[in-house]
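Revision sheet: structure tokens.
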Amino acid sequence: MTPLRGAALALLATAAVAVGWVLSLLAERQGWATPIMSWVSLLTLMVLAVGMVSAGLWVYRTRTRKARRAISPLAAVRVLVLAQSAAYVGATWLGWHAGVLLQLVSGGGFGSANSWTSLLQVGGGVVLVVVGFVVQALCKIPPTDGDGADRQAGKKRPEQGGAPGVQGAR
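Predicted:
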């Protein structure tokens, strides 16, 4: 699985800033409400972030200690995919609300309820991105010994003569 890339997340956030700014500007010109999410949405995302961290810790504890019951590899991958998805959602979330905040501040200064809400949403997006990276690190599987890694990859080590995983004479 490909690890998260900060550059891709930054590019996504930058694109979301541009889209959020333009659509917020259009909404203002049309007399529509500012396109920001409510605090309930932010609260929901933060509850999900706490759940992701706890799932990441579960994977981490399972792989670093002798657990009575091993974690399913599929469950560990699901936690990792959820964490990476959260990072992408967080980058989009923070970018969108940063664009809206940019438009609000440039139009009337900082201090309105919408600007504070937008600023909180930007912070929530940052939290999601950080949680994505942290949980990804918690789910990282350390390299195994040479025999196990080579056997899984189907490669022979220099001291192996026969089939992968079978010790051969030189």
